Amino acid sequence: MKEFFKIVFASMIGLVLSFFVMLILLGIIIAGIISTSGKPDAVKVSPNSVLHIELDYPIEERTSKNPLDRFFFSEFEREKLGLNDILLKIKKAKSDDRIKGIFLDLTSMQTGFATVEEIRNALLDFKKSGKFIIAYSEIYTQGAYYLSSVSDKIYLNPEGLLEFKGFSSQIAFFKGSLEKLDIEAQVIKVGTYKSAVEPFVLDKMSEPNRQQVTSFMGSLYDHFLQNIAESRKIPRDSLFAIANNLKVQNAADAVKYKLADGLKYKDELLDELKSRTGIEKDENVKSVSLEAYDGNTEYEEKEEASDNKIAVVYASGDIVGGEGDDETIGSERISKSIRKAKEDDKVKAVVLRINSPGGSALASDVIWREVLLTKKVKPVIVSMGDVAASGGYYIACAADSIFAQPNTITGSIGVFGIIPNMQNFFNKKLGITFDGVKTGQYADLGTVTRPLTDAEKLIIQKEVDRIYNSFTKRVAQGRKKSQEYINTIGQGRVWSGSEALKNGLVDRLGNIDDAIKSAAKMAKLENYKLVSYPAMKDPFASFLKKSSDEVKEYFTKAELGEQYRYYKQLKQILNTTGIQARLPYTISIR
C-alpha cells in the first residue's frame, strides 16, 4: 500500500510539472506569434498590379489586433480585415500608381447592407481615378451583386448563377417549443411595435410587426434597386419586373437582361486582366490581395501631418454593463473612451461609430450621459453602421448630428423585459420542486421557479414605463422635437435610414467618412489626424477566454449550420438581465 501511494503521489507531481511546462511553452509560442505579427512584412507591389478583393468573411467594424484570430480551425488561412482597413486600403489604392485596377472576386457577403454600402461608396470613389473595376464570380448572391454592380464589367461563369429575386425576411418563433417544455415567457413591455418578445409569446407576426417589416424592407429594396439602376443604366421598374418574375434563372439570362456583361471562364477573365494591365499572355497577372496590400505610404504621411485630432469611438455589439470587450459595448469601457476624448485638448471633435441592436437600458443611459457631457465641450457626430437601434439609438440621440446609411436599421425606441416562468418545466419535466423562506414580500422577485404575481407584474411594468418615458424624453431633447411626436414614431418601431431621415431621427444620409468630414467642419479643422478609441484588448490577456469561447462557437455552428442564428437569438434573450432596450429580433434579409 505504501508503494501504491508513492506511485500515485509521484504521478500527481509529474502531472502538475508537465502542466506548468506546457503552460510556459504555450506562453513562449504565443509571445512569439504576437511579437512577430504586430505588422506583417510588407508585400512588394509590382507596377501594373491588380488589387484582388474577395471579402468572403464576416466584416467587423475594426480589424482585430489579435494574431490568434487566424489560428482557429479552418479560418487560419487568411487575415480578416475590419471595415476601417478595407476602406482605408481602397482609398490608398486610388492614388497608388502601381495599382491599375480592382478585381472583385465575390460570391457572397457575410455582412449587413450598410457595411456593403460603405465599401460600395469607396469603390465608386476609387473609379474617379479612372482606374478599372472588374467583377467575376461563379455565383453572385444579391449582396455580392449589389457591391459588384459598381464595376465597369461584370462577368459570370457560363454555368454560374446570379441571384436576383427580391428580399425576404424570416423570423423564428419559439412559443411552441417553450410550451412543449412547459416554460412561460412572462413579458412586460411598452411600445406597439416592440416585437422582440413576439417570438416567445406568438407563433406568427403580429399585424403591427408585419406593417413595420414591410415598410422598412420596402425602403431597403427600393434603395437596392435604385443604385443598381444607376450603375447598370437599367430602369428601376425593369429591375423590379426582372426580380419579381424571376427572369434570371441561369447565367445566359443574366446577360440577356443586362445584369452581367458577359460569360467567361476564369482563364478568359485572367486574359482580360492581362490585357488591361499590359501583361503578355504568357505571363502571370500581377496582383496583390486586399489583406496583403500595404498601401500608399505617401498618402499615410500626408494624413498624419497634423497635431489636431478627431477621435473615432467604435461602439459595436450588444450593449452591456461593465467593461465589455471588442465584440460588445461595455458601458464602462465606452463611456471611459468618450470621456478620454473629451478631456484630450488635442481632440477637437468626436465621431461615435455605432453598430448595435441595443441591450441593457441602464448601460445605454450611462453611455448617453457621456455623449451629452462631451457635446458641451466639442462636436459629437454619430455615424451609424448596419444597425443602430433601440439602445443603439439611445446612445446616439444626444449627438450634435447623426449620419446613417439609407439601409441602416435604426429606431426601435421601446423597452421590454422577459422573465421566464420555469416552474412547470422543473416540476413536470425534471421532477424538481423548490421551497424556501424569505424576509420580505418581494425578496425573491425575479425568480424563474414560480410565476410573477399581479403585484410584481405591476411593479415591473411601472419601471418599464418609466424607462420608456426617459428614453423618449432623451430623444426629444436631442432631436429638438416634442416628446409626444417622438412617441408617435417610437413605440418600438424599426425604420430604415431613409425613413429615419424623413421622420427626423437622423440628420443626413452618409458614410463614416462623411461623418468625419462633418466633425472636422464643425471643429473648423482643415488638417487633422484620426485616432481610434477604445484601445483594442490585449491579445495575450484574452487568449484563454477567447480560445474557449471560439471552440464552443465553432462546433455549435458546425452542428447547427444556418440554424445557429436561431439558437444564438434564443440563448441571448434567455440570458439577458435587467430592462432591455433591444432591437425586436435578428434581422436577416436574403
Walk me through the topology.
Layout: H1 2-36, E1 49-53, H2 83-94, E2 99-104, H3 113-127, E3 132-140, H4 142-148, E4 153-162, H5 175-180, E5 184-190, H6 198-201, H7 207-232, H8 236-244, H9 251-256, E6 262-263, H10 266-277, E7 287-289, H11 297-303, E8 309-316, E9 318-320, E10 328-330, H12 331-343, E11 347-356, E12 358-360, H13 361-375, E13 380-389, H14 391-394, E14 401-404, E15 409-411, E16 415-421, H15 423-429, H16 454-479, H17 483-489, E17 494-496, H18 497-503, E18 508-509, H19 512-522, E19 529-533, H20 543-560, H21 564-574, E20 580-582
Can you put this structure into words, describing what you see?
By secondary structure, the chain is an alpha/beta fold. The chain has two domains: 49-164 and 248-298, 2-enoyl-CoA Hydratase, Chain A, domain 1; 306-582, 2-enoyl-CoA Hydratase, Chain A, domain 1. The chain has 21 helices and 20 strands. The strands form five sheets. Strands 8, 11, 13, 14, 15, 17, 18 and 19 form an eight-stranded mixed sheet that branches. Helix 3 runs parallel beside helix 4 (142-148), helix 12 (331-343) packs parallel to helix 13 (361-375) and helix 16 (454-479) crosses helix 17. It is globular. The protein starts with a helix and ends in an 8-residue tail after the last strand. Mean pLDDT is 86; it is low at 4-9, 33-40 and 70-76.
